[in-house]
Amino acid sequence: MVERSGLTDLSGLEARFGRAPGVRFENRFGGPVAVLDAAGSTAVVAIQGAQVLSWQRLRAPGEILWLSPVAKLGAGKAVRGGVPVCWPWFGPHPEDAKMPAHGFVRAAPWRVAGSAASARRATLVLIFDATAIDPALWPFRAAAEIEITLAETLTISLSTSNLGDETLPLTQALHTYLAVGDIADVSLSGLEDHTYVDQLDSGTRHVLGRHVQAGEIVVTSEVDRIYQGAPGTITVLDRSLGREIRVSNTGSRSTVIWNPWIEKAERLGDLGHDGYRRMLCVEAANAGDDVVRIAPRARHRLVTEISVRPIGSS
Ligand code: TA6
Q1: In this structure, which residue's CA is closest to atom 13 in ligand 1?
Q2: Distance (Å, rounded) from C-alpha 188 to C-alpha 186?
Q3: Which of 270, 213, 280 is closest to 241 using CA atoms?
Q4: What is the mean pLDDT of the chain?
Q5: Which residues does a 6 A CB cutoff place in the pocket of ligand 1?
Q6: What pLDDT is stored for residue 137 in this prediction?
Q7: Which ligand 1 atom is the nearest neighbour of the CA of 264?
Q8: CA-to-CA distance for 189 and 236, rounded, in angstroms?
Q9: How much distance in Å is there from the Cα of 156 to the middle of ligand 1?
Q10: How far apart are CA 167 and CA 287, in angstroms?
Q11: Which residue's CA is the nearest one to ligand 1's atom 2?
């Protein structure tokens, strides 16, 4: 099937955007994906949702992103894992509980719009034209663009263009699922002294008591928090895998940290046995009260850059 505004057949994608060996197109997880190879790394990007599903560095064997063991494209719902794109709202719809959580682009086909490759870098660009969306669903005119660059690091940028005549209110996230060896051996630094909204207290914001993050974050039960204020670099120290994952975000005034822990993982049903122990979400976001208001004809960019290195290396 050829999308109104783009290609989803592999031969068409390969002919227009293949850049062997750096960018090629295959069928994986039941749908079309792009496979990026550069800088001794491989990344897999689903056309559905413009979602990075995997990033592996050959030098440091092992996956850097966590993916559901039952990940399947084309099932009409978002795939859990990798880096889902939450747009044009984060979490439940601000007014209508019947609307899908985290917006309407995670399970939708995007249009491949560009690619480039060299030995050291491979880039893919995908676009979602939301001007065709029913105004009853979403009364704004906008387009989203995802640019994924695989090099020594993995950089994902989400740009929103306001194509309408009204200011566009936007919340969003690049909902990154990091792979960890065992959540019990992980600590997260970089959010010290930030206030946060604890989603488990039905969104009660710990402000009056100036509830701030004291010291590093360790996960010993379900954690679902929107940390406010632009962070510096966030570091996930994974002692069992002997590595540090660093996340640097721009255009982001909030960071979401999430681990479902045991009961919620069982309710969700797609994390596999003990899956909650193997993942930690560190999300570049503008969420909760951090609503981005984009003027007509203006553009906003949210960027997350992820790097990994052995513990203790410079
Ligand atoms: O980012 C944290 C969160 O908002 C959690 O509340 C949880 O719902 C998670 O996203 C996953 O959402 P999903 O719709 O992908 O199951």
Answers
A1: 101
A2: 7
A3: 280
A4: 93
A5: 78, 80, 91, 101-102, 175, 199, 224, 256, 258, 281, 283
A6: 86
A7: 7
A8: 7
A9: 19
A10: 17
A11: 258
With 0-12 / 13-18 / 19 or more C-beta atoms within 10 angstroms meaning exposed / middle / buried, residue 33 is: buried
What is the Å distance from ligand 1's center to 177 Cα? Answer: 11
What atom in ligand 1 is closest to the CA of residue 173?
Answer: 1
Q: CA neighbours within 13 Å on the CB side: how many for 55? A: 28
Beta bridge partners of 30: none
Separation CA 74–CA 31 (nearest Å): 6
Nearest residue (by CA) to ligand 1, atom 9, is 258
Residue 4 burial (C-beta neighbours within 10 Å; 0-12, 13-18, 19+): exposed
pLDDT surpasses 70 at 107: yes
CB 243 within 8 A of CB 60: yes
Does position 123 have pLDDT exceeding 60, yes or no? Answer: yes
DSSP class of residue 125 equals: E
Q: What percent of the chain has pLDDT over 90?
A: 84
SS3 289: coil
Helix or strand holding residue 268 (H, E): helix 261-268
Q: Report the Cα 54 to chain-centroid distance in Å.
A: 12
- DSSP letter, residue 17: H
DSSP code at position 12:
H
**180, 68 Cβ separation under 8 angstroms:** no
Q: Whose CA is nearest to atom 8 of ligand 1?
A: 91
Please give the distance of CA 45 from its chain centroid, rounded to a whole number.
Answer: 12
pLDDT digit string, tens, across residues 22-56? 999 999 999 999 999 999 999 999 999 999 999 99
CA distance 36 to 16: 15
If one residue of 90, 102, 174 were mutated to test the ligand 1 pocket, choosing by the most ligand atoms within 8 A of its CB, it would be 102
In 3D space, the residue among 236, 268, 291, 266 whose CA is nearest the CA of residue 65 turns out to be 236
